[in-house]
Specification:
Elements: H1 5-21, H2 24-28, H3 36-48, H4 64-76, H5 80-102, H6 107-121, H7 131-152, H8 157-177, H9 182-193, H10 198-212, H11 214-222, H12 224-238, H13 240-243, H14 257-261, H15 276-304, H16 309-330, H17 334-341, H18 344-359, H19 365-383, H20 389-399, E1 407-411, E2 414-418, H21 421-437, E3 444-448, H22 460-464, H23 489-494, E4 498-502, H24 521-529, E5 530-538, E6 544-551
Parallel strand pairs: 3-4
Antiparallel strand pairs: 1-2, 4-6, 5-6
């Protein structure tokens, strides 16, 4: 007995649901990026406390994700599991957006497109509720809604206009998450509304204006100059020198420090595979090729029949993909490649299917859909397994208790996971020591052992110590920003009651400006105004993993049990 259309829909969503569920337990208990996941836990909590992004803390992206997460934390509490489940929801949004856009060609190929997007978007840094994933999900869903309206125009104008309004609102809100998605969202919407009449365009534009109106609220709270500095000047000009990597990535070695740290995967991959650096090299060109391929087929498709709706969808996705490419170029590592590839690479089966529809007319549509989807999925698995299928299956293995390399850090009911046991042990010891030397309400500064170099921050410590409000604007630390000459980091440190400095990144090395020593002003404040109260753990460089400092009594030497800190440069 054949399945009904509704049953087939349920089956497709069931497959995607199972693929999300299999690695979920492993993802929920895996290590998180200490700075990125840390600030996605801390920033919304600071918003709930009344702090304003770009005024009270550095934030390089739009306020939308912080506002939404603040609401989620208000309802369910600021907990790691809440943040990670919200991250899962964002990833589901990306996959459903891709599935919905591909669904115009049928369930079979749409399911393959969804699976490809899923296996690309899940592994990069696990479940971290980053604004990029949320912005892409909203951008795709907004584009899908707009195209739904376009499909109904003009035969069912009332519904078409409602869809246009919804598509505009959702697309606009995507920019509240990430302003740098403006090119991708703008190009996609341009393709979707091109050829419609004035009413449709006005309704879409009205919805878009409603979606981005939150920026007016943000500018009213933070001030236009602060918003411009934090969301344009700092990420585009100040930050790039310390984060960029050589383009293209080299064939024979990895440049990114974090990429090198996670280059060895546990277990064994049963299929032939290139060396990890070679996979990254190939992925770079495959990503660019997929965007060019989508554009070429879309233009060819539209020229063949300007009225064909599927050709319009393909063009919209191709242009959306083109607008995302700068994200992959700004830092050529696997995470940025995945955040972009999840759209164009997952839609390549559609472009192949369009070619087969014309060039292989003897084949059944279902056969063409199966072959195009399976071929691209297999190509991805063979080409970049380290960053896609292998990483995905490793999370599945962790779900069932294998290959676990995450160690729990716990304090006062809050939990974080770290990928190195010695760091987790040192952090647990540190967290037990803090209440012995500080009282609730004391201002906390978290930084690096040598504050002339600020490649990363252990921002998760602010989350683990909620009774001690951050003393610094630089909860997120970036080279060329926090350690820049004239930055406010030294004065922030001077206002702190306690400071925690981490040596876990002291051997950070990348071929960019992160190697340069910045201002020494913060180190001088540390030596002059603080006392070393304790050291915890030892890093592979021989430096302490964590050092705890308390404020020196005014005009007096460090009290018994503490010592005068040495200048990090000595």
């Amino acid at each position: 007995m054949s399945l009904t259309s509704r049953q087939k829909n349920v089956l497709a969503f069931l497959v995607l649901g199972v693929l999300f569920l299999l690695p979920l337990r492993g993802l929920l208990r895996s290590q998180g990026p200490p700075m990125e996941e840390g600030f996605m836990l801390v920033f919304p909590e600071r918003v709930l406390a009344g702090d304003i992004p770009n005024v009270d803390f550095l934030h390089l992206y739009g306020p939308g994700s912080l506002w939404v997460l603040a609401g989620v934390y208000k309802l369910f509490g600021t907990q790691l599991v809440v943040e990670r489940l919200f991250a899962l929801l964002q990833q589901i949004g990306v996959v459903l957006g891709m599935y919905g856009l591909a669904r115009y060609w049928g369930r079979t190929v749409a399911l393959f497109c969804g699976i490809i997007a899923l296996v690309i978007i899940v592994p990069p840094i696990g479940l971290t509720a980053l604004a990029w994933d949320g912005g892409v999900a909203l951008g795709l869903l907004g584009l899908l809604a707009t195209l739904q309206g376009r499909r109904r125009w003009p035969t069912d104008a009332p519904k078409a206009l409602r869809w246009a309004l919804v598509g505009g609102i959702v697309s606009g809100f995507a920019l509240l998450y990430r302003l740098d998605l403006v090119v991708a969202v703008g190009l996609g919407l341009l393709a979707a509304w091109w050829g419609t009449d004035r009413r449709f365009k006005i309704r879409l534009g009205t919805g878009f204006a409603i979606g981005v109106a939150g920026y007016l609220v943000h500018m009213a709270m933070a001030g236009p100059s602060k918003v411009f500095e934090g969301m344009v000047l700092q990420p585009v000009f100040d930050l790039r020198g310390g984060r960029k990597l050589p383009v293209p990535p080299p064939w024979d070695h990895l440049d990114g420090f974090l990429q090198r740290s996670g280059a060895i995967m546990p277990g064994h991959w049963p299929l032939p595979a290139l060396h990890v650096s070679s996979q990254l090299f190939v992925w770079f060109f495959a990503l660019l090729a997929s965007v060019v391929f989508l554009l070429a087929v879309a233009i060819w498709d539209v020229r063949r029949d300007r009225t064909r709706f599927q050709a319009r969808v393909l063009l919209a996705v191709a242009l959306f993909s083109l607008g995302m490419v700068p994200q992959a170029m700004q830092r050529v590592d696997s995470a940025h490649f995945a955040w972009v590839s999840c759209v164009p690479f997952a839609f390549v089966p559609i472009a192949i299917l369009e070619i087969l529809r014309v060039r292989a007319k003897r084949w059944s549509f279902r056969r063409s859909a199966m072959l195009s989807g399976a071929a691209v999925l297999l190509l991805m698995v063979l080409m970049v397994p380290q960053f896609t299928a292998w990483a995905y299956t490793d999370y599945v293995a962790q779900t069932f208790g294998r290959h676990r390399l995450a160690f729990k850090i716990e304090h006062d009911g809050r939990v974080f996971y770290y990928g190195r046991k010695e760091v987790a042990d040192a952090a647990n010891e540190l967290l037990r020591a803090v209440p012995k030397v500080a009282k609730p309400g004391d201002r906390l500064f978290v930084g690096t052992t040598d504050l002339r170099k600020t490649p990363l921050s252990e921002a998760y410590l602010y989350y683990m110590l909620p009774d001690y409000p951050p003393a610094t604007y630089y909860i997120e630390m970036d080279p060329g920003v926090a350690n820049a000459k004239g930055s406010r980091m030294a004065s922030d440190l001077r206002s702190a009651n306690i400071a925690i400095l981490s040596g876990a990144w002291n051997d950070w090395s990348e071929p960019n400006d992160s190697r340069k020593l910045g201002s020494d002003a913060s180190n001088q404040v540390l030596v002059k105004d603080f006392c070393l109260a304790g050291s915890f753990g030892v890093y592979r460089t021989g430096d302490p993993l964590y050092e705890l400092f308390t404020r020196r009594p005014a005009g007096r030497p460090c009290p018994p049990g503490t010592t005068t800190p040495k200048h990090p440069g000595t």
